[in-house]
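Exam review. A common question shows you a sequence with its structure tokens and asks you to describe the fold in words. Practice with the pair below. Do the first one on your own.
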Amino acid sequence: MDYSQLETQLTSQLFLTHRPVAVASLAHAPAGLEKFEGVQPSGCSYWALASGGGAFYTVAADHYNCSIGSHTHNMPLPEDRAHELGDTLGFMTSIGYLRMEEVPSIPQWPETPGVVVYAPLGDTPVDPDVVLFWGPPGKVMLLQEAALRAGVAAQLNTLGRPTCMVVPAALTHGVMASTGCIGNRVYTGMDDSELYVAVPGRDLQRIADETATIASANATLQEYHEDRKRQLTPA
């Protein structure tokens, strides 16, 4: 699959300003790809770094600073830090952010990764498990409509917090939207006017094949609705 061409096509048709990010869970690091060096406060922080042009892989320890993200990534915290998940969940429930009974339903990656690869879609060195897109709802909605046309949209509600669960959810259920969460917006710098759509890598070509039709249809419908508005709205 020509991921560079796919990124160019989708970015142009959707008028995206952020590069889509390819995410892949692997047993071992790909040859020639550099390991991430440094410290980040969350797993979703790597999304922003990759969208900015970086291609790298992480190991489990790179995700431990976010106990919730480690949970959704199926990366158990080491024994001396295992209490952090309970501490964080306890804090979140105490302020009314979530209920403890919600936790078992939070999606997780099916297996613990050996490494996680992050890269701009056009530069990915491996086939992605999931590709993350984000932007204004009026643009990324076209991905949802293309997914419906291709028959690969998830039959689930739009996800909210935690944002990182959208990756395993899409992997299991299909193209999935997420409104994002406050932690993700702080760590990635995503604007309040934007949201996410996660596309399974296996469905990416089918989505791309339908996006041109959907984008053209929406342009035609915009003219249609604007004309009706002019005709039917009192002066």
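Now try the second one, then compare your answer with the model answer below.
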Amino acid sequence: MPLLIEFTIEGLILVRVGFIGLGVMGKHMATNLVKAGFTVSVWNRTRSKMNDILKMGAAGAESPKDVAERSDMIVTMVSDSPDVEAVVLGKNGIIEGAKKGQLVIDMSTISPEVTRRIASALTEKGVDMLDAPVSGGEVGARDGTLSIMVGGPRNRFDEAQSVLRAMGKRITYMGGSGMGQMAKLCNQVICTLNIQAVCEGLMLGASAGLDLNSLLDVVTGGAANSWQLSNLGPKMVKRDFAPGFRIKHQLKDIRLALAAAAELKLPLPATGLTQQLFRSAEAEGLGEEGTQALIVGMEKVAGRKLA
């Protein structure tokens, strides 16, 4: 069955898009779809989070099933593997309202194994699924500049370009079902170790008596620079722990990465160590804070404050 389409006044062909999950990232991603001119239906477990986007012209749905009944492509952006399973396969889930030919695009970061299981269940109903996790944080979600790594049927990836490009700038096909999620876990391993490297470099500088702002100025201009250093380093120095990406979510992603590595019998020793430091920060009550609060875990190990 071909996708249903709508024609805008300008004559552009746009699919009807459903969006489930209006958290820190999802609210901006859904907003960008509305701004791009798509007809958007939204649902969120906490209904008050729907208010702002409804004012922009999105339609509110009563359940994930209702979203599926209103849409051609359905985007999910929720917290973890069980949450995706619930909104897709659970009671009043997407699968109950899905029609043959539809496409589900899961942009959450979840287990590759769970992704494949959900995709298989949808396939039995004639519905395809792309796993399309993102990197770029809240700023990237807000500005529509996310990096999106995609797994699933190549032909459906090609079909989804207009929707994906409303939310991201670099969109890369990674392979079959689950490979988008696997790419995201690689991304999270690299980010995790990079954040730890920033913590250690700043702690060394502080302990030696360097001015940390001057240190950041010089090292961000050289080979050591990275997104984490230039964006999170100054926040560590200022003790600004407002979340762009929360420690509790980073811990979830590390858990998924270590589980995937275990299935492949691959050791990730530095990732395992950094997981414990993130847990130390979480134990200090910082799970809801941004990942830059890892510096607190480092301070605890070092027995001294950064500043």
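Model answer, second protein: DSSP finds 15 helices and eleven strands in the chain. The two ends are 62 Å apart (CA to CA). Full marks require stating both points clearly.
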